What we know:
Layout: H1 2-18, E1 41-45, E2 52-55, H2 64-102, H3 112-125, H4 127-162
Antiparallel strand pairs: 1-2
Helix pairs in contact: 2-4
Amino acid sequence: MLSNRINKACRLRMIVSRHTSTTPDAKSIQTPNPSKISSDMIGPPDPVSNLRTIIFRRPSNETNLEEKYRKLRTEVQDWNHKFWTQHNSRFFKERETYLKENLPDGKTNLTADEMSVFYKAFLDKNWKTHLNYNIEWYKKNLMLLGLAIQVKIKKLFRTKQTK
């Protein structure tokens, strides 16, 4: 199971690398067609959000429930990607500002102890955002879990009926 996912990720990475120039540009990446792939495909990590985009397979005989589940998975993935892109962008920007204001002359970086002051301040400032994100994340995942269970049960009964 895990080796299948790793193989899929490698295949997507090869597809992506074949369609990119020597300087990766998001616009030059050709995304595989979801109705022509044999399974979900996992892409390389996004440079800002650090999340891997998943291209969800769209089977030709997809039921309305399966389509609803696939679309909700895509929406949750997009929501998650947007949150972490904004969060990480804000983090990098604030870290850069902190370094400019606190870096003594002649030094190229701060120690881990010196940076811990920034990290704590950033986490304290954003605790409410993280709390709201976690609450929403759990809600969305429970919705996905409910749909996934429904899809599996329907598939189970569908295969038993065809035998």
